[in-house]
Amino acid sequence: MGTKINNIRRQTPSDGILLTSWLEKSGLSRSEISDYTESGWLQRVATGVYTFVGDNPTVYGILASYQSQGTISYHIGAASALELKGFSHYVAMGKPAAVIFSPIRPRLPKWLNSAELDMRIVEVSTKIFGEVGVEQMEYNGRQLTLAAPERAIMECLLLSPTQYNLMDVYYLMEMLTSLRSGLVQQLLENCTSVKVKRMFLYMAEKAGHRWFVKLDLSKISLGSGTRSYSKGGVKNAKYDIVIPKELADYE
């Protein structure tokens, strides 16, 4: 019995969780799981979810565990995905947010939103991009699903100004000098949000990125009519948008 739990311990990073179904596949019976819980090896954190006593699960560690041990639909998106890829221009005050995109059904496990973790979870459901621009990343020996930078910056625009200030999104855009123009083109053609498409193109052109000139704007539908994204802002005639004066004047 001791050999079983020690083998599982060696396979389990201290930032992760253990699902009952996976423990059973790893050779533990329900009674053994109960015994290890009573003897202080394991602790139950939610229905069907355990950790080793003394471990410190994190949001990303938990998502990686769900991905490796079971089935869960999600991807880390927006600025959270960009940060994991090394793009970040400021340190958030207070507890940082993990922006997680999930389907309307099934949603993320409910216990995650009430657990005391290292990050607060902002769960988003949207179909405006389809499945384009989602990729895998190695994280502590496991895999995480996250938005590629090309999609992540568009997700930032989708969530602005509620979740992100437009100036902060532009600072991130300035860093994205090596986006893949083919993937950007595909995302923009698939995207159903006029706001995202117009603001993305405006910011990309303003930043002077080389990949911008490779885009075929004739294939991207931008809708019609002026769209305002800032009360009392400045109008940009080319993209027919009203934007914050701070952004318009920024050089």
Automatic annotation (TrEMBL):
<dbReference type="Pfam" id="PF11459">
    <property type="entry name" value="AbiEi_3"/>
</dbReference>
<dbReference type="Pfam" id="PF17194">
    <property type="entry name" value="AbiEi_3_N"/>
</dbReference>
<dbReference type="InterPro" id="IPR021561">
    <property type="entry name" value="AbiEi_3"/>
</dbReference>
<feature type="domain" description="Transcriptional regulator AbiEi antitoxin N-terminal">
    <location>
        <begin position="3"/>
        <end position="93"/>
    </location>
</feature>
<dbReference type="InterPro" id="IPR033455">
    <property type="entry name" value="AbiEi_3_N"/>
</dbReference>
<protein>
    <recommendedName>
        <fullName>Transcriptional regulator AbiEi antitoxin N-terminal domain-containing protein</fullName>
    </recommendedName>
</protein>
